[in-house]
Amino acid sequence: MIEQLQIKGEWRDGVPILEIDYLPAQMFQPRTSQLLSEKLISQYRSLLAESGLDVPPPACVLVIKATTAGSPLVRAIFAVYEVIHADSGTLFCVNYPVAYLESLTSLGLTALPGFKLMNTLDETLEEARKLVPPIA
Amino acid sequence: MRRSTRSVWTGLLLQVLGSAVLVAFQGAGNPQVTATDRQVQGDIESLSSKSWQVRVSAAQALAKIGPEAMQAVPALLQSTRDRYSSVREAATNALGEVVSGSTGKVVSDTVSGLLGRCDDRPEVRAAARAAILRIGAGAAPAIVEVLRSNAEITSRRFAAELLAEVDGFTVGLAADAAFLLNDLDNDVKSRSAVAISRAVEKCALLGPACLPQLSAIRVIGKAFAAAADASLRQYELPVDVCLSYLEFMAPVAAKTRYQSIAEAAAPYTFMVCVVAFLGVVVILIWGYRTIKAKMVIIEGLNRENLEIREQKTLQEQNEIARSVLKRFVTMPDREQRPGFTIAAAFKDATAVSGDFYNWFNRSDGSVCIYLVDVEGSGIDAAIQATHAANVLERTLTRGDIQKAPALLENADHHMLQELGQPNIAVTMNLVEIYPNLVRLANAGMPPPLLFRHGQAQPQQLQAAGVYVGGGYGRFRVEPRSVEVSVNEGDLLILFSDGVLEARDSFGGLFGRPGIESAVARARDDEPGTIAKNILSAAAASSGDSLPADDQTVVVVRFGGYGPNRAGAQTLIEVSSDESEADFTITNAADCAAVCDLVLQAAVRGWIGKTAGYSPGRIWCAIWEALKNAVSHGSNRGEVILLKLRRSRDLIVVEVEQPTEWRNWDEFLGEAARKRLPDGAPRTAADIGGTAALLKLADTVTASMLGRRLTLVFKRVAAPNEKGITTHD
Questions:
Q1: Count of CB contacts below 8 A, A vs B?
Q2: Domain final residue pick, B509, B530, B558
Q3: Structural domain of residue A118, as residue ranges?
Q4: ipTM of this predicted complex?
Q5: Which residue of B586, B594, B596, B618 to mutate against A (max A Cβ within 10 Å)?
Q6: Is B81 in the same domain as B52?
Q7: Is residue B525 helix, strand or coil?
């Protein structure tokens, strides 16, 4: 059984990957969006800090492992997107729960420049690698 | 010590003598400086004294001197800004006396000084009014100037008011002040209209001698006609009348340049008389209507005052009645006995209506509850209720175990014996409670409801009887009783007629359905919560903070009162057919998971039967509404209702939560919808549960004080389908 909320981060092929998982009850909690936003941004910043890169990466992948979603998650994704987009990066969102996709699209996130909705992590990494400059 | 005191006195004496010599020398050297001048000079200096009493005295002294103290005007004007209102008032009075009858710059300085900053103390404002009126005719142009140049609103209103009172506000000046009829402030506008209208009326009284003012009155007439404010029309009437008269007289006066106006007007005397007569009639009608309107207002105010006084007396009487009841009548909150728990809730009416209840334990382990309603309201009902409570407490708790009907007869007998023939009826429910049995005798109260475990519809416990005190001993009455066996989980609800008869804003009764609905929402809660829930629901239905009649609810739960609420599991009850589906969802820890798995499947299945709707869109909206109802609109264990309705072109979703959401309009109203961007969000504020609802549903409204959210989804037309409205 997973904890109420889990957020992990790792680097793969020069791309920072954030992974989020939670129980459905998380979506019915007050202040969830704020909690998710803070934790995701904090995880992303610690990934950047440990990488020692001079410039922020041009892409970031957010993998959603939970099976439920809703406005709190959409708001958290938007908060991460704002941070990444401010550095001219692209946010790839992978595995957004299909049953709740309408909440993401209706709130207009898919219309944001620098935001891409993806199906699998492999194809996302392939796309993201195209944006990462080759290591000299 | 003594030496130093002496030296101080000597110093003071020398100083006084020195001053006297200096003054005498100055006076002698300048013969034009009079004693009054010297006094004025001294008073001017005293106006700067550190002591406010000295400053007041100086201003009063200057007032007594009057116009001869003209040189003190700047200092007095300065003193009208003093931090002490007494000094300001004295200085203002003095200005009135000193400047009285003057003209020119000193008047305009004084008036603009007095009106420039409207004092916040009424006595100082009153002094300013008196001072300006005392100044006389010279003040009028200065007031108009203040109105032209001063932007401070209270000063402007004050000045406009003074215009109507001050002498010298002539028609010529009124024509200059006609710009005020278009003032942005309504008060300034209407007060100026009164003043201008009066100036014209005064002029009209002069008759043909008013002719030289014809052009000024024409200007005023045009200004009234051009004023956009319709409320000014009433002041326009005298101007119109005067203008008609003068317009008629003008050619007459021109023709008879060398004759008296009376001679010239001779051929027209009849017409002049007719016009004058009509003018007088119009003015009289106008005056009568104005006075009548004022009388109506005064009558209304008097009536209002009377009502307030009566209301206050009624409130005081109610307070006394409440304190009487609270002091002498015991109404316990809760009782837990082996096999059952009793709890009660009570709500005062606007006027005390004589509800009370009590219960007592008996030696066989049973409890006897009595719920009483004394007819009437106010102090009489409170006193009668106190007597009845006293008699009942003594007779019902005598110790010998008696069945409810016999207890009722006893109560009637003792009430008749001790209180005599009562003027008011006492209705009562008397119930014996055993762990597995209820025995009820009823004397005119609404029949109690028994909710069997697992059943939504209650059973009414009917036991018709005559009200107590009506004289069971005088004529033969056999109170009936009803006995029912009860099991664990059953609920017995006793209530007074005040609960049943609570009315909503459309006049609909709260009634039995209201009680059933309130019980359904808190079915597994402890009895006290159920009782409070019923009263809250009745209050929410009527929208009144205080009911019209006392409301009492007593709840008995048989057996324990359910599982630990924190561990309550989500229970989704479904009732569904082609056109509608109802779901009852209990707020619990696993609520989100169960809704995601069970409810989502049920909802999607129900929607999926008709083409033209997006189940994903509707489910996401329901999910957001449920998230709101679970996290903000209900507590653990409370029930949320979800209703789906389908017509040909619409699916309507209702989500009903127990808690009110009064400011829903702020988040879901038209303004909130307009704030949302069409495409991508601009800020985090554009994303949220309510924003999602507005984006997902075609319309979102709330009702029942925000407890019910209604989402409407329109059917999307299939290609080539006719008769269906397409939408984006």
A1: 95
A2: B558
A3: 5-127
A4: 0.93
A5: B596
A6: yes
A7: coil
